[in-house]
Amino acid sequence: MGLDFKSAEFLCTEVRRGISLGCLLLLGRQTVYMAPREIAKVKAWTGVALKPAGFADEFFRALGAESISFLDHSNYEGADLVHDLNEPLAREYHARFETVIDGGTLEHVFNFPIALRSCMESVCEGGRLMIFSIANGHMGHGFYQFSPELFYRALAPSNGFEIERLLIRHAGVWYEASDPAAVGSRIEAVTSRPASIFVSARRVHLTKIFETWPIQSDYSLPTLPRGGAGCASPSWAERLAVRSATLAELQARWRTYRGSWHRHLSNRAFFRKLGASLL
Question: What CATH code would you report for 2-218+260-275?
Answer without folding.
Answer: 3.40.50.150
